[in-house]
C-alpha cells in the first residue's frame, strides 16, 4: 500500500524573497524576469477585463464609422486629444483588475508555498507583472492614436493633435497597472483591488465635475467644461506635459514601493524612489499653478480684438475672417450665407458683408448671461475695415447631429446673418434683442431654410425649447436674438411649403416684409399661411 509522501520545502530558498540580488545572479534573474513578463503579457492581453474594456471603447467608434459618424464631421483635434482619455479610463481599470488577479494567482490557487522553491525571487515575479502592463499601455496608445487619426482625416477637422495629451493615455494605463500590483502586495484579498479602483473612479469623477478647479489635474484624468466652445490651440491653458510627468512619476513610485514590499533591497531602488517623489511633487505644483499672465493677455486680446490674428478670404463678395486653425470652416459658413442670399432681392444680395469668427470664454456654460465686449468688437471691425461683421463661433456640426451646443451655434450664426440682411444687425449688448412682426418671420425663415444643416440645427433646438419662442444667443452671451411664439408659429407653417415658392414671395414683397411696422398677421397673409391667433401674453417685448 502506497503511503502519501510529504514534499518538504527547501528552507534555503524561503529567504530568497528578502535577499538582495548579487552581481553574479543579475543576468539570470533579469532573463527570468523578462521571460515571465512575456508570458504574463500574453495573459494580460487575453484577460476578460482587458478584452471587455477594449470592446466597450472600440465598438462605439466602429458603429459611428459604419453609420457615417455625422456627429463628428467637424472635430477640433486638440479637444479630441483630451476627450479620448476619458474612455481609456475603462481600459485602465481593466488593466488594474487583471494584473492584480495575476499577482494573486498563486494565493487564489493555494500554491504559495510551491512558489518558494523557484529560482526567481518574489520581487522578480513582481517586476515581471509590472512589465506585463507595458503591452496594454501600447495597445491603449494605438487605439487612441487610431481614433485621432480617423478624426483627423475628416474634411471638417480643425486644430492639431496634442502629443502630450495622447501620451497621457498609456501613462494612465501604466499608473493603473502599478496600482493593481501594489494592492496585491499589501493584501491578498481579491475584493481589495475593485474597491481601490472604485475610489480612484470617484476621484476621477470629482475631477470631471469640478472641471474648472485646478485641483482636477491631480486626478487621473483632467477634464474641461464640456459646454465651452473650442479655443485656438495657442490660447488653451492645459499643462498636459506636467500631467504626463505626474502620472509617470506616480506609476514609478507605486512600482518601486511594490518591489520594496516584495523583498527587493537596493540603493538604486532607494535613489530612484527619491527621484520619483521629487518629480511627482514638481509635477503636482506645475499642474495646479494659475494660467500664465502672458497667456491671459493673449486670450483677452483674441477675445476683444480678434482681427489681428485672423486670416480673411472673400467668397462671392462676402469676406470671411477666421482664426488660422478654423479657416477650413469658411466653406460651411459660405454655404449658409449663400443659402440666405438666394432668397433676398438682388440689391440686398450684392451688398458687401463680413463674417468674423470670435471667441467668448466667459459665456460658455457659466449658467449666467454675461454681456459680450460689443464695443471692442465694433471698434476692432472698424479698424480692420469690416464694420458690422456678423459673429460666428468655433463650434460647428452637421445640422441635427452632434452636440447640442454645436447645433445652437449653427442656427445662431444663420439667425445673426439673416438679421443683418433684414434689420441691419444691430443688437442690444446686455440682453437678447427682440425681433418682432414680419421682420421676425423673414429673419427666422431665412435662417432655417438656408441649408439642410441649419434646418436640422433648428429642429434640434426646438425639441429642447419649451414655452414657445426661440432664443439665439451670441456665443452663449447675454446678447442675441429673441423670437416670440406667434412668429415661430408662422415660420413652422412656412416650412411645410416649398422653399422656392416662399422665397419668391419674400423677394417680391421684401420692402413690406422688412418694414418695421409690418405685423406678423400681415406677413402670414402675404406668405399664404394661416394667420396666428395672437395672445397678448405671447407678445413678449414686441
From TrEMBL:
Residue ranges of the region described as Disordered: 1-25, 362-395
Transmembrane stretches, start-end: 48-66, 86-106, 126-149, 161-183, 190-209, 242-261, 268-288
Keywords: Membrane, Transmembrane, Transmembrane helix
The organism's place on the tree of life at top rank: Bacteria
Keyword Signal included in the entry's annotation: no
Keyword Iron: no
Name assigned to this protein: ABC transporter permease
Organism: Streptomyces kebangsaanensis
